[in-house]
């Protein structure tokens, strides 16, 4: 799969946010039937090749680049560390990037064809944004979430469909994913939880991505 030539294209834009933040978009070769907004977009935007190799609906990836400074990245991605910094990044991600993507690429897809995705600390971001903006994101894709952001006793009344995955060789992250799956299930949400062989940052993240897209947007 890694050797397959990619048919889609990439576009990168630099925004004024936080002194200059890039967003890289994977534009599929066919008109997009779905869109995934992702944190750590400098890497995840490249996963379009895995979608092209799978039998899934044509899906655009809007990848908001993450910070290399891990502490600042955690503050942006989880609402529990620095509420002000998280809120600023939330506005940028949801409002500014969303508005730009709709204008730049003519993507006007409904909520049920829109997902938010993240891995590790980015998984916390996906959960937080999905739960806070169910009118924007109809699905949450979350791989190996970190442990800072935890389920609350009272969950939102409206919860996007959620697909979680974690590896057998990353017990801390597997526990976090399972905790979220149980809490969302108890709140009545449509939840999938997959346990895969693998360690943190392993290839199972990339392999799971097309399965997430197929589950949320159409073809099994």
From TrEMBL:
Gene3D superfamilies: alpha/beta hydrolase
Signal peptide positions (record): none
Pfam families: Esterase (PF00756)
PANTHER family for the chain: ENTEROCHELIN ESTERASE-RELATED, FERRI-BACILLIBACTIN ESTERASE BESA
Name of the protein described by the UniProt record: Esterase
SUPFAM superfamilies recorded: alpha/beta-Hydrolases (SSF53474)
């Amino acid at each position: 799969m890694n050797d397959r030539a990619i048919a889609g294209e990439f576009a990168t834009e630099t925004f004024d946010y936080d002194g200059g933040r890039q967003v890289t978009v994977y534009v599929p070769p066919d008109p997009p039937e779905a869109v995934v907004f992702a944190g750590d977009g400098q890497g995840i935007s490249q996963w379009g090749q895995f979608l092209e190799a799978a039998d899934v609906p044509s899906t655009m990836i809007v990848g908001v680049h993450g910070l290399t400074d891990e502490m600042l990245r955690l503050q942006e991605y989880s609402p529990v560390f620095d509420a002000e910094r998280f809120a600023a990044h939330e506005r940028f991600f949801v409002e500014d990037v969303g508005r730009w993507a709709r204008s730049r690429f003519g993507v006007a897809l409904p909520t049920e064809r829109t997902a938010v995705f993240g891995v590790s600390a980015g998984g916390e971001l996906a959960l937080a944004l999905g739960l806070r903006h169910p009118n924007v994101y109809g699905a949450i894709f979350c791989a190996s979430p970190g442990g800072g952001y935890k389920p609350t006793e009272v969950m939102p009344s409206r919860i996007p469909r959620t697909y979680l995955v974690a590896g057998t060789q990353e017990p801390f992250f597997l526990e976090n994913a399972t905790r979220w799956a149980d809490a969302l299930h108890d709140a009545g949400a449509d939840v999938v939880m997959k346990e895969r062989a693998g360690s943190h940052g392993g290839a199972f993240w990339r392999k799971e991505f097309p399965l997430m897209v197929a589950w949320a947007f159409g073809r099994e």
